[in-house]
Input
Amino acid sequence: MMNPIQMDDAAETLLPSALLEALYGGLLDATPWEAFLRALAAYLDSSYATIILTVPGASSPGMTLTPGADPQVQEDYSASFFTSDPFIGLPEGEVMRFADFVDRTARKNADFHRDFLEGAGGDQILGVDLRAQSGFEARIRVTRDQSRPDFERTERDTLQRLVPHIRNAVRLYERLATIGTEQGVFQGAIEQMAVATIILDHGGRVLRTNARADHLLARADGLSRSGDRFVLGGRDDQKALEAMLRTLDVESDPRAVAPLRLRIERPSGERDFAIVAQPVAGPAFMRGATAAALALFVTEPGARTGPSPEAIRDLFQLTPAEAQLAATLANGASLIDAADRLGVTHNTVRGHLRAIFAKTGVRRQSQLVHLLNARLP
Output
């Protein structure tokens, strides 16, 4: 059994649950870190707390956030004082006071102290630097106004106990940012290929769509939404989709369920849609009613999307008419078809084509089409 002295020591090392909740839960907020920094400043009886995410040696921080501080002070720091800040390069993971780390004489004469710290409230600052394996630094700074007592050992020890939690939060934040970046790359590739993507939950409700899917659903031409539910125009196709969703219950392994392929007729008479319904292989504990169940990939077989006239014009410095012709040819049209589509004479398109050859450096129409589709997929 723990004796009273041991119990008192243990109590002193406990950190408030609200502070830890703000640290970890706040990573998913619209402004990550803000809730934690506000809670940290309040807990340490400080004016404000700051996080700086940066690559060592950079001329400006990648991100800096100080909730409650004067925005102009934050802007001045990033623009003018970031590179002259003497309170950097702290021992990794060790909480330091500004007064203990920076030589007092150098601090007194430094432009940073005279021009920035006085306006920011003084040099009563606690700091800790955490270095991620990928190379960036997370710098935590807690500042008190100079009219208040300086930080003592108690506050330093409190922040030191938080360091392992902050380190874990930085790792989580880095991973979330990496996933978001990679997701953006893949989503951009799908958008370029004009693939509509729709994610459904187990009840057939739409969880997420991309821009192409939003466009197709708004047209309601074989695919539509009824409230938050995804609807196919054909009754048999809808039943097949619903049957697949029933198969993907909490007891089923999505990886063992084959993709469903559907061809959807469109009331407008335009090309049929081709849909591949691919089960989402998430963790078993996330296979509830509102979790992602199916990813639908919708294409129009035979439809072709090539580079835009605007992109061609900007890349090769073509005129609008020349760029429009180049885009039409890149989409597979013949020169005669292009003239008809653009409403100009054959002599006009031949003149435009000669100008395009001169500006792009190619000599044949086939070379031009290959160049455009290679440079501007």
Residues 309-375 form a domain with the Arc Repressor Mutant, subunit A fold (CATH 1.10.10.10).
